[in-house]
Every structure is written in structure tokens, then in C-alpha cells.
Amino acid sequence: MKEQLQQKTVSQEEEAGSTRGHMAAVFTVAVWGTTFIATKILLRGMAPAEILFFRFLLAFLVLCAVCPRRMKLKEKKHELLFVGAGLFGITFYYLLENVALTYTLASNAGVIISVTPFFTAILSHIFTKDEKLRSGFFIGFLTAIAGICLISFNGASRFHVNPLGDLLELGAALAWSSYAVFSRKISRYGYNTIQVTRRTFFYGLVFMIPALFLMDFRPDFSVLGNPALLFNFLYLSLGASALCFVTWNTAVKKLGAVKTTIYIYMVPVVTVAASAIILDEKITWMSALGTALTLAGLAISEGRTKSKKEKEAAVDY
């Protein structure tokens, strides 16, 4: 009886943690889904390289101010996990995506980046012990991809194949999937989430510096005198970077890399809704159907069958 009650208590605590993880993931993608609009506005006065570097630099400084305590590693080898997270999640992902968009269409990129959950599932299955591949995940993946295709190519007269740009975007998807796996491994060691995010940003910025010399990097802060540009820069730095990477890492810690990354399916849905509200863009039947399919795919991928142990723990004694 005592063991059964303990199992029930543990099950309830895990369920509460899972709920917090889902809420953190939903909040994160809700913000990330609007970053396209914020970036589009900010590009009126700043180059992509400037936006990228200073966005994460300000986010890093804010996290240092919020949590100034020095992070002590439990094992020296853990440093390699932070190096990997910063290199893949910040430097590689954002640089590859920015360069890809100069060669391929945004609609192509929107579909290609949506294969991230698939890559994450494969990498997690290989490199972690707690991420299992299920048939429901793949069914949901195909359903969501169908919906995202409808959203991304809505109104497009034809599909444009851009090998270089599309391959770079595929590399960006793989980079983010790798970041998700590194984040999952880091979450097992009980480090403070803000300190984890701060350290990840630090390595991302370090690896980004050499790439700036190859890009159009000419800082001009005078443009931030424009209130609209300043607001969107702060939104990207403080909201989409400093806050959302913390909430994303929290979700990964609670749910795992695969279940959290599935929420990326929602990003184009949020973008469509935000564009309709902020930019007054019309929602067509194709985008509406695409949104429904994407959300259905998300629900199917997130669904799971309870194990025998979980069912026993759920019995009301």
C-alpha cells in the first residue's frame, strides 16, 4: 500500500512537471513564431550579421545581470556539452539559416526547417537512452509537414528548387536538432537553467566572431534611435533570446528533446496568425487547412500510450 501511494505521488509530480514543460514550450514557440515579423522590421535599418550578433550579446549580458553567480561545473568534461550547444544551437543554426535565406525562398526554408523534430528523434534515439521512437511520432510528422507545406506555399505559383540554399537550411535543421540533444544531456546534471543558457550564449558568441569578418558587419547603433527598430531589437534580444532560450531549455528538461522539438511545428502557425493581426495579411483556405493539419500533426506526435507501470500508478487506491 505504501509503495503504491509513493508511486502515485511520483506520478502526480511527474505530471505536474510535464504540464510546466508543455506550457514553457507553447510560450516559447508563440514568441519565436513572431520573430520573423520583428526581424523583417529590423532589417530596414540593420544588416543580418548586426542583428544576430548584438541580439545574443545583449541577451548574454542580461542573463549575467539576472544571475551573476559563477557557474561551477560538476565535471570538467561537461564543458564540451556547453561548447557543442553554443556552436550548434547559436552559431551554426543562425548563420546557416541567415545565409540560406539569401539563396532560397522563405517558403522553402519554412518547410525544410520543419524536419527538425525528425532529425531530433533520430539523434536522440542514437545518443540518449530516454528518447523512444514511436509510430505515432512519424504519422504526426507527415501530417504536420503536409500542413506546413500548405502554409508555406500558399499563393505561390510554383515550387522553386534552390540546391545550395535548401541544403544550407537542411544543415540549419540538423544543427538545431544537435543543439536539442546537447541540451537534453546538460539537463540531466541539474545545472541552473539560466546559467546553462548564459554559458551556451557565451560559446555561441565566441564562435560567431570569426564568421562576422566574412559577413557585412558594420555596426551602426544610430538606427536604434528609431522607436520601432529599438522595440523590435529589444524584443528579439530580451524576449526571443534571453527569455525564450531559458523557457525552451526548461521544456527540454521536463519533456525531453523529442517532445519539446515537436512544438516547432507550431511556429509557422503562429507566424500566419501574427501576420494577419500585425501586417493585415489575409488567411486563405489553404493556410487555414494547413494550420489545422499542422496542429493535428502536433497532437498525434505528442500523444502516447501509457505503459503498464504508469497505468498501475494511476489507479486510485
Automatic annotation (TrEMBL):
Residues 20-152, 164-300 form the EamA domain. InterPro entries: AA-Vitamin_Transporters, EamA_dom, EmrE-like. Its main location: membrane. It comes from the Bacteria. One of its GO terms (cellular component) is plasma membrane. Keywords: Cell membrane, Membrane, Transmembrane, Transmembrane helix. Pfam families: EamA. This is DMT family transporter. It is found in: Cell membrane. The chain crosses the membrane at residues 21-43, 49-68, 80-96, 102-123, 135-153, 159-179, 200-217, 229-248, 260-279, 285-301. Belongs to the EamA transporter family. The lineage of its organism: Bacteria, Bacillati, Bacillota, Clostridia, Lachnospirales. It is a multi-pass membrane protein. It comes from Qiania dongpingensis. Coiled coil: none annotated.
